[in-house]
Write a structure and sequence with these properties.
It is a single chain. The protein has 164 residues and is mainly alpha-helical. The protein has two domains: 29 residues; 118 residues, no CATH class. It has five helices and four strands. The chain has a two-stranded antiparallel sheet. The protein has a two-stranded antiparallel sheet with strand order 3-4. The radius of gyration is 25 Å and the shape is rod-shaped. It starts with a helix and ends with a helix.
Amino acid sequence: MKKFKDFLYDKNDIIIALLILVAATLIIIWRMEAIMEYPKEIIGTDDSNVQEPVQTPDDDSQTDEPGDDNNDGDNGDANTDSDAGSGSLWENDVLSRSVEVTIKGDSASSAIQCLVDAELFKDYAEYQSTCTALGLDHQKVSAGTFTFEKGWSKSDIAKAVNWS
């Protein structure tokens, strides 16, 4: 019995450290699913908060009127009104100006709706197909404010907002 007491006394600190390590490992393994779901929670509960597109000073198409487009007519679109659709934002499948978007939402679909509202994608299905083509999980969307630079493609945008 004395040898056992001496062993416990001598190795007490190491035994306690190992017990704490085992307990922490078991808790992490037990809660792994909740830990992996956390990024979805930080997206928030707001449906969307899309800010107006921002034109940078180095943008050649910038004019005094924010709704006025000077895209030199290269893409053949007749969309000259800022509300006319994606023709004013996209030129040859790349952004014609920089755009800043704040992504919020409690699900991937509400977060992607922020991108749709900013006319970066036509709908959720287009975002989903872009992610699938890139090998990304379309449901893993990061929350935050993103600036998508002039010349970016839809693939670049999907990569920027996807955390998979």
